[in-house]
Structure formats: structure tokens, C-alpha cells
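Kindly review this protein for my students:
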Amino acid sequence: MVAVVGLYLFSWIWDLDRALGNVTYFTLFRFEVYRIIFSPIVGNSLLNTIVLALFYPLMGSRMESSFGSSLYLWLLGFITVLTNVVFNLCCLLAYFFSMPEALFYSCSGFWVPMFGLITIECMLTPDAPRQLMFIPVNIPSMYFPLVLYAFFSLFSGPQLDFLLALGVGYLYSKGFLDRFRPSSTYLESLEAAGGLLHQISRVRGYVLAGVLGHDAWLPTNAAQVVRESGDSRGSYQPVQQQQQQQQGSSGGWGGIAGFGGGSSGAAAAAASGGEKGFEAFPGSGQKLASSAPAPASKEAIAARRLEKLGGSSVQGP
């Protein structure tokens, strides 16, 4: 949103839509492939920028909390790139069918990936009803993106890029594009120590790849917990200290409550208590292979209880 708003204000001085917008002639024939990536942050009008600023941050943060920051970043880039590539292929196909003006059609604006994200979010609960602004009609979530596209078409006419983004969103929701989706294990390896996203994953507000659903609203990394609690003891030890004590456990994340394994939490408790680390779990257990008598069987216990109640002894199982 910072890039969208900043480039819109900069467009009063110099409009970068011609330099960064995805136009098939420049993208394919002049090999300006960077247009495919940067096209969403240009070509946004004043009304589009205001509407995006009102609605996208809430929807984006909710989806990021559900998917994880790394997967959400991949999803945003995947929708953008795939929609722009298919748009270029459609324009090239129209050019071969005697429509040379199709080479100069533009695909830009942040509403292109927005339509894909809205479709994916709606397909998570396809039967839940939604309302479009002031229209007092409940629309099933499965058809809400199509109604939204029709609403946009009333003001700006049918747009191929929006329609293609809808198609990408539906294909992703139906699982046809799962082969391109990175696995959770791969994303967690990128966020682990030595990974490409290790440093950025320590930033406050970053949602880890293994955090999904309700847990995504909880504190998401060790750095955030340490900053908020100010406690370096127990399971909230500094990250480097935990990594030294528990190399290889929970992907290098240590004993963060709710995000590590059970063994890492026990190791952190032991480290905090020194030689008496496990006194935090008092109990009266007995060692294995000891000479203590075996516990009585269920039948013997039942017989003793009957005798106390004045009943006779139990015969048989």
C-alpha cells in the first residue's frame, strides 16, 4: 500500500504507467519482463487508491495471518505473474488473429491481484452469504467475485485482466495449481537458521509458515515474545541461547510456547532450572525396572471396594 500510494502521488509529476505497466508489445517484443512484476503498483486512479487503502490492509492482514507471511507473499506474486503472463498470451493470440491493437492493451493496477485474492478468500467459505456494499441481497461467497466483476464492468466496461485474475483465483481454490505451491516444510526451512528468510522472519508481526488458523493471531516468533515480555528465562530465552541448547529441535525455534515441540519445552525448562530443571514438574513417579510392587489389578480393587461397602467377594473376572 505504501508503494501504491507513493507512486500515485508521484504520478502527478511523472506517470510511470508507461514505463512499468504490462503492455504486451514492450514486455514480449522488447523483453521488458520486469513489467510483469511491477505492473500492480502503477495505473491506480485516485478512486482505486482510496478504496484499496480502506479495504485491502484488513483483508491482507487476515489472509496473511491464515496462510503465513511467506506463503501469502508467494500467493500475491504468483497471482500477479500468472495473470500477467496469461494476459500477454491472450493479446499475442489476438494479434495473430488480425487484431494488432491488442499488443498495446495494458494490464496494470493493484486490482488485478486483488481480484485473485478476493476469489481465494471467498472460496474458503463458499456457502457463506456476503453483501456487496449497499445492495441488500445476500450473495453466496462462491459467486461474489463474479458479482463484483460485473459491478466493476458497469463503470469501466469488461476488463480482460480482472477476468483472468478471477480465473486464477478459482483454479487455485479448486487445487489445479497446487503443483506450483511451495510446501510448508520448504517454507519453514527458509525461515529456519541459515535460511533465506531467517532474518526477516524475526521482524515483529511476521507470521511463521507453521502457524495457521486461530494460532496465527498469537505471538509469532521469538523476537517478538522477548521484546514484549522482556524475560530471558524459561521458555522465553533469547533465540541464540535456545539454538545452542537445542540444536535440531523444532527447526531451530527452541521452546517457544505453542510453536515448538514438547521436547523443546522440556529442554528450555531444564535449562532455566539448572541441575534442578525438572523440579517444575513435581510428582511421585517411580523408576522403571525398580523393585517396587506391581499395582493391583482392576478385579482386586473392585473386590476391596465391595468389601468396604459390606458386599461379598467377587468371583470370576
